[in-house]
Design goal:
The protein is an alpha+beta fold. 47% of the residues lie in helices and 21% in strands. The chain folds into two domains: 79 residues, Arc Repressor Mutant, subunit A (Orthogonal Bundle), CATH 1.10.10.10; 170 residues, 2-Layer Sandwich (Beta-Lactamase). The strands form two sheets. The chain has a six-stranded antiparallel beta sheet with strand order 6-5-4-9-8-7, sandwiched between helices. It has a three-stranded antiparallel beta sheet with strand order 1-3-2. Strand 7 and strand 8 form a beta hairpin. It starts with a helix and ends in an 8-residue tail after the last helix. GO terms for molecular function: DNA binding; DNA-binding transcription factor activity.
């Protein structure tokens, strides 16, 4: 079972709602029309179930069907749903411009993260063009207490709030997973605040990531920008990459609304 399947089967997720969102996320990943058989295969759904979901989306004008190609594709209505959020999250293109500039200048994958419960979630990613790279899909969840993006996001929170979150995390961990050490986490976050950035190479084998808290919030939610790539490329350039990230944040987000 992959991470997306686990996410759909998480407590509190209605099965049909999870499957609908998985279809829309699959379109976002492929960015092309798809036939029923391909959708069912890639999501591991029974063909009849996938067809019923697609017909429901078609009836509500969220998906269009091409009778010639026998393919489905999302309509403009899907894109319009989050238009008001995009303006606030991406500062009308400034954040995307920042991410594109960082990819061009570093050659590494760049991600934008926000907190989602006990996870850091990548709401937007720009992939490196290199063959050996850190590949991330938008929507990917990472443990907030182990990832660089998570550390950067947590650094904006007071210690009392961190303690409450640690208790929540530990209550939800599987028995085989080691509990989060509250004192160690608070000490690590103190260092992140002091340095102004977070670095981690312990979450994904062979991958190092750097993250910096952005100087504004979207609807009261903190955001962090991150760079990820092979440790052999990222770690030796740590100081250089941090300086570059800070420079580009200053250039692209100058005059952006302050945290609110």
């Amino acid at each position: 079972m992959d991470r997306d399947e686990k996410k759909q089967q998480s407590p509190g997720v209605v099965k049909s709602a999870g499957r609908v969102m998985a279809i829309l996320e699959l379109f976002d990943e492929t960015q092309a029309p798809m036939q029923l058989t391909e959708i069912a295969r890639r999501l591991n759904y029974p063909a009849a179930s996938a067809l019923a979901l697609l017909k429901s989306l078609q009836a509500m004008d969220y998906v269009a069907f091409d009778p010639v190609q026998k393919s489905y594709s999302p309509t403009i209505r899907v894109a319009m749903l989050g238009g008001w959020i995009q303006g606030q999250v991406f500062l009308n293109g400034a954040v995307v411009g920042l991410m594109n500039a960082l990819v061009e200048q570093t050659g590494e994958t760049v991600m934008l993260g926000m907190q989602n419960d006990i996870y850091a979630q990548y709401v937007h990613t720009v992939q490196s063009a290199r063959a050996l790279r850190y590949f991330l899909k938008p929507g990917t969840l990472r443990p907030i207490w182990r990832s660089a993006t998570g550390y950067a996001l947590l650094s904006a929170q007071p210690d009392d709030q961190i303690r409450k979150l640690v208790r929540k995390i530990n209550a939800r961990l599987e028995e085989a997973e080691p509990p989060v050490d509250e004192k160690a986490l608070l000490a690590d976050l103190a260092q992140v605040r002091k340095r102004g950035y977070a670095y981690s190479d312990q979450l994904t084998d062979g991958i190092g990531a750097i993250a910096i808290l952005l100087p504004y919030q979207a609807n009261g939610r903190a955001m962090a920008i991150g760079i990820g790539g092979p440790i052999t490329r990222v770690k030796p350039r740590l100081a250089e990459l941090v300086a570059l990230m800070r420079d580009q944040i200053g250039i692209h987000l100058a005059g952006s609304p302050s945290a609110r």
